[in-house]
Amino acid sequence: MRRLRPEPGFLKLAKWVGTAAGVAGAVLIAANIGAVGFGFVLFLISSLLWILVGWMHREPSLVVLQGAFTAINVLGIYRWMLA
C-alpha cells in the first residue's frame, strides 16, 4: 500500500526501535536467565514508542492496546525490579 505522504524519519525509527525492543524483551523473558525485569523495561520502551506511532497515524486501537501493555509493563517492572 502506497502512502499519500512520506512518513517522517522519526516515525520509521520509532517503529523499528519499538519492534527491536519488543523482540529483545520477549527473548529476555523467554530465556529465563533472571533478566525478566529488564525484559519488561524493553517492553515498556516498545509500548511507548508504539503509542507515539499510533497517535501520529491516528490509530486509536493501537494507542489503546499499547496503553494497556504500558500498564502491564509498569506492573511487571514493579513486580520484578522494585517489590
Molecular structure report:
With 83 residues, the protein is mainly alpha-helical. The chain has one domain (14-82). It has helices at 9-31, 36-56, 60-82. α1 (9-31) runs antiparallel to α2 and α2 (36-56) packs antiparallel against α3. The longest helix has 23 residues, at 9-31. The model has no long low-confidence stretch (mean pLDDT 94).
Q: What does the secondary structure layout of this molecule look like, with pairings?
A:
Layout: H1 9-31, H2 36-56, H3 60-82
Overall 3D form: elongated
Q: Structural class of the secondary elements?
A: mainly alpha
* Low-confidence blocks of residues: none
What's the tally of helices?
3
* Number of spatially distinct domains: 1
Average the pLDDT over all residues and give the rounded result: 94
Compact overview of the structure:
The chain is mostly helical.
Entry keywords:
elongated; mainly alpha; 0% strand; 81% helix; 83 residues; 3 helices
